[in-house]
Every structure is written in C-alpha cells, then in structure tokens.
Amino acid sequence: ETYDELHEQYSRIYNMNTSSKAVEHDWGMGAFGDWTKRASQFDTVAYTTLSPGLDRRYVHDAFTQGFMVTKEMYDDEQYRQLEKLPKAMARSGRAKVEKDAMNPLLNGFDELKPIYDGKALFAVDHPLLDSDKTSSNLITGALNDENLKKGLKMMKETLDEAGNLIQMKATKLIIPPALEDTAIRLLKSNQIAGTELNDTNKYLNSYGIEIVVMDYLSEAAGGSDTHWFLQDGGRHELNFFWREKPSFKWEEDFDTLIAKYRGYMRYSYGVSDWRGIIGSQGTGA
Fold first, then answer.
1. HSE of 26 in the Cβ direction (CA atoms, 13 Å)?
2. Residues β-bridged to residue 131
C-alpha cells in the first residue's frame, strides 16, 4: 500500500511495457529514400531493401530487500518503530526505480557509455544507415529563451536513416527541480522571460510544452541541477520493461519465531532510438 501511495515520476517520460521473457530485443531498420519518378507508364516499380538495424537488448535485473523481526522485538516494541520498517522498505524500492530510470539521461553525454550506434545518447553526429549525413540531438547552454528555441528547431530537424526530415515536435521539457522556476517563466510568461523588452512570448506559448519535473535528476539525488531535455512525447524510444512489479511478502519461522519480510522486483530500461529526445548539460561545454 505504501509503495502505491508514493507519486510515480519516471513513467511520465518512458514508454511503459511488460515482459514475459528474460531478455527483450528491439531492432531498428533503415529508411526509404525519395520515391522514384516513373519515366513512362510502362516502367516497373523500383523495389528497395531496407538496411538492417542494430540490436537493442533489454536484460532484466532483479532486486531484493528485506528485514527480520524476532518475537522479542515485536513483543517489547513500545515506539512503533517496527511499523515503519515495511513502509521504509517500500520507499527505498520506489527510489531505486526512479534513480535507475534517470541513468539514460544522466549518462547520455558520456562517450564512454555509447548506445547502439556507438555514440553517446546525446551527440552532434549520429550516423545514418542509408545516408552519408549525420544528425544531432545535443545542444549546449543553459535553459533560457534562446537555447530553448534552438532545441525546438533541432527537434524539427531530426533526420531518419535515409536523411529525410521526420518532422518531430517537442511536447515535454524534462528538468530537475532547480530549473522549475526558469521553465515556468519561459513557457508561461506573456512576455519574453529575462529581458526588458515588451515582446510577446506567443512562439513558446503556442507549443503547449508540458513541464516535467524529475526529482531524481537533481544534484541532491546524484544528478545535475543544470541538465535539461526536450522530448517528443508520442514518438520517443525511451523504454521501460517490467518483468515483475514490486511484490512484498512475509512469513514466520516456526522454530525460531523470527518473522522475515522481503520485497522483490525485476525490470530493465534503456533507449531504442536517440530520436525524439534532445539533451543539454546546461553548460557551454
């Protein structure tokens, strides 16, 4: 009951899935280029074979936590501490999921932790299977009016594997709590935030971007107070698989009279495609 009572955040930015297998696989594929013009009414169809994509693997890890209570501990309890143990265990389980789910974003700038295409999740030169072009989803600079507009433009310029525009649109701004005030001023103000100009803010207002505050992105949780991300909420490929959702059980040993309480869960998470999400570390680097 306590686990379900806590507000869940990570599912707001993930595609939530269930799994009945030890490992889930996701394969990408190439993309079709321009259609071929028919030179005459007798021309045959120009058939194309798409380039095979690379394997994305989701391996489910299992996690447990537990505690024991002796009969004497239970009988002599006077300060209701034992009642708090199951609740504390449930909260730590929820925190584990939330922290893990932030790893793809927080590690997404590290070239030593590449995704399927050999690049960091956020890179300026993602290779394309069926084109000599590259495409970027990395932006630099703090969250402000100018950089946010650059991010919106970059999302629209996302290319498919053939080098064609996908026409993605940012619908979510993902931020740590430290940037919540900045985000509200940028997206909700009637005038351009941070300036003395009387210009209207209709461009950003027209996007209707949802502000998604993720507590476990914060520096206090081991993340960063400057990172920010834009996401196409309907077309991103940030995936989470529940193999088994958290379960909590207890039993008492007949001979020792010791009660054992345990929790168990199993899941995996990751990204199948860099498209649909743009990231900035919030600095000029």
1. 19
2. 128
- In this predicted structure, what is the pLDDT of residue 192? 60
**Long-range Cβ contact pairs of 256-261 (< 8 A, separation 24 or more):** 256/70, 257/70, 257/71, 258/68, 258/69, 258/70, 258/71, 259/68, 259/69, 259/70, 259/71, 259/74, 260/66, 260/67, 260/68, 261/66, 261/67, 261/68, 261/69, 261/85, 261/86, 261/89
- Splitting the chain (285 residues) into consecutive groups of 10 residues, what average pLDDT does each group show? 74 94 82 78 78 82 91 73 81 93 96 93 94 94 94 94 91 96 84 57 72 95 96 95 92 87 94 96 78
Could you tell me where the DSSP H helices lie in 52-196?
71-75, 81-101, 103-106, 145-156, 180-188
**Residue found by looking up tokens 């919540």 in the block:** 180
Structure tokens at 230: 């834009």
